[in-house]
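Budget justification note: compute hours in this period were largely spent on complex prediction jobs such as the one shown. Inputs:
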Amino acid sequence: MIFNSLPFFIFFTIFFILYWFVFNKNLKLQNCLLLIGSYIFYSWWDWRLLPLLIGYTSINYLLGYYIDKATKPQTKRFFVFLGCFTGIGLLFYFKYVNFFITSLASAFAKFNISLNIHTMNIILPLGISFYTFRTLSYIIDIKNKKLKPTSNWVAFFSFVAFFPCLLSGPIDKAKTLMPQLERNREFKYDEAADALRQILWGLFKKIVIADSLAEVTDNIFSNYQHFRGSGLLLGAFYYSIQMYTDFSGYSDMAIGVGRLLGFDVTRNFNYPFFAQNVAEFWRRWHMSLTSWLTDYVFTPLSIAFRNYGKFGLIMAIIINLTLIGIWHGANWTFAVFGLLHGCYFIPLILKGTINKKKKIDPNKSMPTLIEFLNMLKTFTLVTFALVIFRSDSVSNAFGFIKGIFSKSLLMPPGIGKPICIPLIIVFLIIEWIQRDKRHVLQIQNIKYTGMRWGIYILLLITIIIVYPPDVQKNKAFIYVKF
Amino acid sequence: MKKFLLKIFAFFFSVLILFLICLFFVPDIRSENSLLAALPDKHALLAKAISPKIILVGGSNVSFGFNSQKIIDAYNMPVINTGITISLGLKFILDDVKPYINKGDIVVLSVDYECYKKSEISSFDGKEELVPLLFDIFPKGRNYLDFDQKIHLLHYLPNYSFSKLTVKNLFSKFQSVKPKSGYDDFYGRYSFNKYGDAYIHWTLPSITFSPEEKCNGNEQINPDVTNFLTDFRKYVTAKNATLVMIPPPLEATSFENQEFFIKKVALELKKIDLPLVSGASRYEFADKYFFNNPYHLNKSGVDKHTDIVIADLSKIIRH
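Corresponding output:
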């Protein structure tokens, strides 16, 4: 059941009615409904994975309680270790064990040593990267006394399985989402109306832009050997936009659904392609993951490396970004993607501009030439790294990049779907104009209701026209597989 | 909350009104010269032909599979090739031809193998191509639909209705329709000859295509298809006409990949007393006889296939 499907529409309509009309008087009952709804949503994909989610949540609920209750520091540390070990162990087993086995075997094979070990037949539970990070934040925040463990098990179980963010985030930390689950929620008209606009814009980005681009990029990345340099360059450019519109489209829908239920879900994107440098890009891209890793990995690491000056900071950032890369999955391409982004930070750290905020004045209609060139430079660096991210292997990525810098770079691209270029340009211009808003469809400044409604209807009709009626032709969200 | 619900209702109501206006009042200009627009042309051929006649029925394997002139020469009977595309659904294709079946007619039916598959319900009930046909080309065809078909086609409607607003539709009037020479649209209204055979591709070079995928062994026959065929045979017999089932022509690699299911179909048809006129392997052709997919023959394939059908029909038709 994905957000852009009829089953979800039906499910959510029923859920919304029950949530606000039947169970709205009693918080516990409302949370129970949220929990049951989340489990139904999750089971729709594969019910066999539900016991794992319930079991893992139960362990963390108990650990949270015991960490708080433990009086001796070593006992406390033991429970925290157990919590981290369970979460990271689970991730390692489901996501990385086969990768580890094959990498080990191929490393030994280079020395002509044959290891007689086999990969395991493991199904990757959906959303595991997201819900483990959510529970880890709970355990660590209790240990750091930033959060009190909850005695309300329904609220905790709902927090872990919170269906709007279960499959692909945003990764809400316990300290932001748990308090919202423990207090009464009221329906606010303005919030709900804006949430619907955000969902509509998310749908538009996913279906009209991302899925249209996917048709081109899937072909280019699968058969890059047959494309000209210019076609590959344009394909790489398309993929950056596809990745952004796909994931931010999903995030907009998730946040919108959360807002309809009265929750303030963490923002995940803030117009990253207008960033002036890579450091700013990461403050605007997949913000919930960056924020999570900053709190629980980067900050402790930079404290540990503080005696090494700039070198320590470089190390902390490289480790942090490599972990972001590896978090996406078991492939060297993700590790290289993260490592490369880490390397992008080195000049910024050496120049001392890493924390310099270069926010462009929201009232400015046009960027200056320098600002524009900075944006272009950042976008190019990001696109280059995303080629590695998207490729099946590192050698394919290098083949792709080598292909770009061939003689055919100056020839016409010949990759089809020329409509994509004006579509992207219009999209980026609209994003630029609305860049100080939470999402693009915050158009209350247009005074005429009819005109605003006209825009909403036009967007909806475009979505319907582009959306393939055959379910098999629908493209899944990129981040669902992570 | 009341205000919120009222506004949502008003929004969706506006969209619904717009949807209905587009569906019923905005013309589908694209369809006017599309492949689907050939249906009324073929109806005209059927109405004009004097019985006893030979009616070739099926999807694109039929339209791309025959040189009707050869059959006319062999049996001295009028021949009408009614094949357009299997996307219209087997149910609709058979219901559509029924009013034109008269005493003494020979109905030669060739059904793509995918139609028999339980997993390919769209090939039986109809795919999205059926929608423009029913709303803009042949509205009378809506009377043929049963409840299952209507439900099945429902989810194609919003997309179809609003797609009439696209530039592609609104400006297709300005596109050239049928140049006097060099017309090479083999999927258009004018890609058929006077018997209904697709013939534009006869002079075009073949296009590379992928064969049908290998069977996984779990393919099931849709009992609704065999029941429907049985009823169709009863209808044809009641009209004092004859139904002849022939295997569809299939490219060799696809045949090999689909052999498990092809055998299953032959067995099932035999069980319901609707046997194919000859073994399916007789209709397996080498790759060089195909044009752009495993069911579409090129000119040499068409001639070879027509010769085989003529030979097989001799078992039924007395000279």
